[in-house]
Each structure stands twice: as structure tokens, then as C-alpha cells.
Amino acid sequence: MSDAVRELLSLLDLEQLETDLFRGICQKNGWKRVFGGQVVAQALVAASRTVEAARPPHSLHAYFLLGGDPAVPIVYEVERIRDGGSFTTRRVKAIQHGRAIFAMSASFHGDEPGYEHASAMPDVPMPEELGEMRGFIAAGPDQADTIVPAKTFAYFTQSWPIELKVVEIERYQSREPRAPRFHVWMRTGAPLPDDPAIHRAVLAYASDMTLLDSSLIAHGRTVFDPEIQSASLDHALWFHRPARADEWLLYAQDSPSTSGARGFARGAIFSRDGRLVASVAQEGLIRPRR
């Protein structure tokens, strides 16, 4: 198992401080703020620890309130809103330095028979047909700007626990406005334990990695541009069907609107055999720096 995946599993192994009170460590990636996907995943783990395993989460809705401090742990306080006959509801507050930095509501529901349909997976190249991100930089990372900007290269090639393969790599090679659609294959860099709760948490973690960036495609910009101030504002995730996060998943993203220095983006996550396993929506700050 790679060190990055091992670190991810340690991030998800929260320490229980008291009934409905948990503490999680922060990822050491050199950033000034905690990665939002980490907080979403840890909050989901905290909420799930208070619900019976037979009733998995089917949706979560979260708000990022303040940038997290990666130098200190995060305390997660779970509130038991409702335990019903079919649904369970939890609210989670993430706390650092005595202040709430994040708030999330999550709903849990056991599987039931009923109607079923799903959107079809987009027709894109399979992951085996795409090169590694480093493969696009034939001359080496010191020449990254000749193919993609250096900050973009650094993001996609740093030691993430999630392996990413970008379909539309050309969007990073010019500032040409394009249709706001983006596809990324993703999976963990090593096999995970079989516990479905771990795979759901890892999927939540990965769902925040590239989504906001798709809201800038129509403007020929990316979140890596120095003239863009970007930050996730909220995050919603729906789990439709079971999936393994250590097998290739296609993250199909689009952005129907940007306005008021905010970008709105949607995502659909498919297993490689075409099953729609999750849906995502997010609004984020994409403020031009003046």
C-alpha cells in the first residue's frame, strides 16, 4: 500500500473523544488550508459512526464556513436529529480553534426494492487509453509550462491518494473558452479494505478534487490561475449504488452557470461498466483578483 493511501486511511480513522464527539488529523500536503474533501469525508465518517451499518448514507449536504488550519486536528460534533423507521438524519459540525469551520447534514436509509433507472455513462476513452499526467511532460516537470502550466502539473502529480487521468487535457494547454464539460477517471493508488463505509468516505474525499475547476472552462481559465481566487462554498453528494473507490470511476462534470463571482458545477460518477453510482453538486468562489 502506498504511503498516500495509508495516510488517507489514517485520516478516516477518527478518534472518539466522547459520545457523538470525534477528532481527526489533517492531511500533510503543504497547503495553507485543509483540503475540503478531507473534511467532507471525515464528517461523513463521524456521522456514520452514530448510525447502524444496515442503514448507509444516501445523501449529504455541506457548507464550508472557514478555511481549515492543517496544523491542528479537527473536532467533529454529531447531533442526532432523527432516528425514524426508514430514515436517519444527522448533523455534523467541524470545529477548530473554538469556531465552526464546516457544517453538514446527512441522511441514511436502508436499501429497498422499487423503481430504477439511471443516466448513461458518457462515451469517453477508457483509462487504459489515457496516459499518466506525467506522460504529457516529455521533457520533465521542469518543462511543465511547455505542455500545461506548472501549477496544474504540480497539482495532478503530487502525492495524492487518488490517481487521476484527465480526458480533456487540452483545456489546460490554452486559454481558449470551451464547452463547460470535463471528464476525469479516478481511483485510489492502492487497494482498499472491503468495508463499504471506507469506499463511501473515499468517494466523498475524491468528489471535491476537480469539480469547481469545471466552472471556469467556459471562460478559458482554471482554479490554478494566479488571477483567480477560488474556494469551495458548499458540497452535496448523493450515493445511488455501491461502488469501490479503488477501481476506476468516471467523474463526468459540467457547469450550467457562473455568476456573482460564484461557479456552479455538477458531477455524475460512473463505474467503468457504466453504472451511475453517485451524483455531486457544488458552488464555489471563483473571484477574479483585482
TrEMBL record:
It comes from the Bacteria. Keywords: Hydrolase, Lipid metabolism. Residues 156-285 form the Acyl-CoA thioesterase 2 C-terminal domain. It catalyses: a fatty acyl-CoA + H2O = a fatty acid + CoA + H(+). Its EC number is 3.1.2.20. Residues 33-109 form the Acyl-CoA thioesterase-like N-terminal HotDog domain. GO terms for molecular function: fatty acyl-CoA hydrolase activity. SUPFAM superfamilies: Thioesterase/thiol ester dehydrase-isomerase. GO terms for biological process: acyl-CoA metabolic process; fatty acid catabolic process. Pfam families: 4HBT_3, Acyl_CoA_thio. It is an enzyme of class 3 (hydrolase). CDD domains: Thioesterase_II_repeat1 (cd03444), Thioesterase_II_repeat2 (cd03445). Belongs to the C/M/P thioester hydrolase family. Homotetramer. This is Acyl-CoA thioesterase 2. The lineage of its organism: Bacteria, Pseudomonadati, Pseudomonadota, Alphaproteobacteria, Hyphomicrobiales.
